[in-house]
């Protein structure tokens, strides 16, 4: 399989899942700053021009975080990346969507690419402030929902990989993590696969 990723981006969450499963894959670095994701050869694989992308052995590509994560959990069931218990499984899926669609899509997208939202009435700084507000409120929601559990759905699941990358970003921009998120973030960093991925992507723990 070929995995298209950018160090320190949302693809870090998928990178963690690939290492948790112990898969052998070819890593391709997509340099977003240089615009690699908009080059015709990349768009031919992922027409959305986004990362992550997983090009599977049968030649088909999965082009979103959630599609890749759910496919990995389904294709490698022995690794139990989704809980067997139906209610726990639903809460893992809901939390993953919340992290990817809301915390990342509505919040961090405003923080990291404010020019996409800025208007003459809403300058870049205001867009970024709004993004931070969305992230802070959403992490508080995660905190209130997950307090008392080691992982989002009890045991480690694909939801934890998605929560980890948004916690990682919040930490990098010096946002305070609410108690559950801080503990979850630290717990994640003790996992060998997470440590390996962060080291490979050039981060010191
Ligand atoms: N909804 C997409 C979001 C992925 C995404 O936004 N990735 C960012 C990097 S973290 C990206 O590719 N940005 C480049 C761009 O949007 O131009 C997914 O689930 O994979």
UniProtKB/TrEMBL annotation:
Cross-referenced InterPro entries: Glutathione-S-Trfase_C_sf, Glutathione_S-Trfase, Glutathione_S-Trfase_N, Thioredoxin-like_sf
Pfam annotation, one family: GST_C_2
Domain GST N-terminal: 1-80
Organism domain of life: Bacteria
CDD domains recorded: GST_C_Beta (cd03188), GST_N_Beta (cd03057)
Entry protein name: Glutathione S-transferase N-terminal domain-containing protein
Organism: Methylocystis borbori
């Amino acid at each position: 399989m070929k995995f298209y990723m950018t160090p320190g981006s949302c693809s870090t969450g998928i990178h963690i899942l690939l290492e948790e499963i112990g898969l052998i894959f070819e890593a391709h670095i997509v340099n977003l700053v240089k615009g690699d994701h908009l080059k015709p050869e990349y768009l031919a694989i992922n027409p959305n021009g986004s990362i992550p992308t997983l090009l599977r052995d049968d030649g088909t590509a999965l082009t979103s975080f959630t599609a890749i994560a759910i496919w990995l959990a389904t294709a490698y069931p022995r690794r139990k990346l989704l809980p067997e218990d139906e209610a726990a499984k639903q809460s893992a899926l809901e939390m993953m969507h919340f992290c990817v669609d809301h915390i990342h899509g509505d919040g961090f997208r405003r923080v990291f690419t404010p020019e996409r939202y800025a208007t003459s009435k809403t300058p870049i700084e205001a867009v970024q402030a709004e993004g931070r507000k969305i992230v802070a409120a959403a992490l508080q929601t995660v905190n209130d929902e997950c307090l008392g559990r080691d992982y989002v759905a009890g045991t480690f699941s694909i939801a934890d990989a998605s929560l980890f990358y948004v916690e990682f970003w919040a930490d990098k921009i010096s946002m305070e993590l609410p108690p559950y998120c801080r503990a979850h973030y630290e717990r994640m960093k003790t996992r060998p696969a997470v440590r390996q991925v962060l080291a490979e992507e050039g981060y010191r723990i």
